[in-house]
Design brief:
CATH architecture of the largest domain: 3-Layer(aba) Sandwich
Radius of gyration: 21 Å
Helix content: 40-55%
Number of helices: 16
Distance between the termini: 34 Å
CATH topology of the largest domain: D-Maltodextrin-Binding Protein, domain 2
Length: about 350
Amino acid sequence: MDFRKKRGAAAKSAAVTLSVVVLATACGGSDSASGEQETLVVASWGAYFTEATRTHLADPFTEETGIEVEIVDAPGKYAANLEAQQQADNVQWDLLDSTSAPDAYQMAHDGLIQPLPEDLRTELEGVLGEEAVEEFGFTFSNLGYVIACNTEEVADCPDSQEAFFDTDAHPQRRQMISTLPLLNLSLAEMAAGVPAEDIPTHEIDMDRAFATLEEIKPEVKVWWESGDQMEQAFRNGEVDMGIAYSGRAFGLAENGQPIEVQWSGGVYNPGFWNVATDAPHSEAAFQFLEWVAKNPEAQAKWAEHTKYSVPHPEAFDYMDDEFKTQLADWPDNRAQLTTLNYQWYAENSEEVNRRWQEFLRG
């Protein structure tokens, strides 16, 4: 696939103009244009996530290189904001911190993020492994979408999507995520008999997948939009089992909730570090990516701060023994997780998203 394919030009609305003005004010414009000291601008997710990136990645990088790093909070708004900046020919951001996989593949498809330089990509594949490196970046902030069960209500927690979707064998109340249509369609395809190992390259039969989802829909009592909502549904007893963030599910168990986590039948969901197309400081941005990718101790500290997984195999050497076994990149866990066909989604996202919204409303 040509990930540098550009999205067709769109008319710039007043809302887009306002977004760019706000971003320009927040970021202070390009350092190279003003002649000031070079400063990288990183878009991140806010709160503890931004704190972890600043403390364990940005500040140590600045200490070693002298390159300053400014972090701008833009949770869930990377694509829209970056597209607005590019349409205005005023790109403010250099780097995107832990872009969700569907967004990363879509932005690469639309030309919003840069491919890695070939020599850097080869080098990072040697450090992190080929499976952790894509043309447009490397994985970071990785998690599993797992099956989680309240053991007081579910004696035999499903260990496959076929079992999770079997409402006769498991009539308990469920929850699923509302914001990721590709994930749900892929789970439905596995429930319909598509082998998990085929899912990364499988072109989804949308009619079949939506029909499978319609069958389980009456037992899905909560379609959650955030990790907080997912946790609350378990705490309040609204649901007995569900598709959950791996880290959040383990957090519930650690805080006394009777939660069992099944990695088997789950999905590996990576985030990605990316460099924006037309970034003001591309060379320094790729230098930052290289520093992060090659620093397992910094990755380990970041993971312990956020509870999300990181790609460097040696990062586990710096982690608590119990904690590292709860991460999606821990080898025993990773081996049980499939991945999704994000390239297919990037090419079919308009139809997928339209039909998904119709499904939720129906």
